[in-house]
Design a protein that fits this description.
single chain; mainly beta; SH3 type barrels; OB fold (Dihydrolipoamide Acetyltransferase, E2P); 3 domains; 5-stranded antiparallel β-sheet; flat
Length: 188
């Protein structure tokens, strides 16, 4: 069984019949009292965020999570539909389980975290950086590159990303899926 010394960032823990992901953790030591371990936890199967404190050495209950490669197929009334790349089995997940649904495009490969005890999908992670086509943006003015001015651009998934003035319609750009920010222009 695991104890508080095994806590790490990203670990999934079972508390009060709910699953929580460790966002941040640390240890408080005082001269008189025993050391305490604290953690900020974000709900995996609920939308709660909590803080929890244990005595050093207390038993914790980690959940084994496996990441599997899936392919995004389409979105419909049931949710976002994905296909397992190995078994070709399809699953439908709610929007709140996808970390950046506005950047999902058909055929894109994603990573699905699956609870190995129940075989239930817990979350969907997109690759850190995604290449998208700019479908609409205002043309930039020639020579206006002295400042780091940004303009809105609509990409092929329908999301809006702020891009530098030199980016034009029809160009490919790389976007950070976590922050939604422009990274660079992609040369074909």
């Amino acid at each position: 069984m695991a104890n508080t010394s095994d806590i790490s960032r990203g670990m999934i823990l079972k508390l009060d019949n709910s699953l929580y992901s460790v966002v941040e953790f640390g240890e408080n030591k005082t001269a008189r009292a025993a050391a305490k371990v604290w953690a900020k936890l974000k709900g995996v199967d609920n939308s709660r965020s909590i803080e929890k404190t244990w005595n050093s050495g207390d038993t914790i209950y980690p959940v084994r999570v496996e990441k599997r490669a899936f392919q995004f197929l389409y979105k419909d009334d049931t949710g976002y539909n994905f296909m397992d790349n190995e078994t070709f089995e399809q699953i439908a997940l709610n929007e709140n389980m996808v970390d950046a649904p506005q950047f999902l495009k058909d055929g894109q490969e994603v990573s699905v975290a699956i609870n190995t005890e129940t075989e239930q999908p817990m979350s969907v992670e997109l690759p850190e950086k995604i290449v998208l086509l700019v479908t609409y943006t205002e043309p930039g003015l020639r020579g206006d590159t002295a400042t780091r001015t940004l303009k809105p651009a609509t990409v092929e998934t329908g999301a809006t990303v702020n891009v530098p003035l030199f980016v034009n319609e029809g160009e490919l750009i790389r976007v950070n899926a976590k922050s939604g920010e422009y990274v660079e222009r992609v040369k074909e």
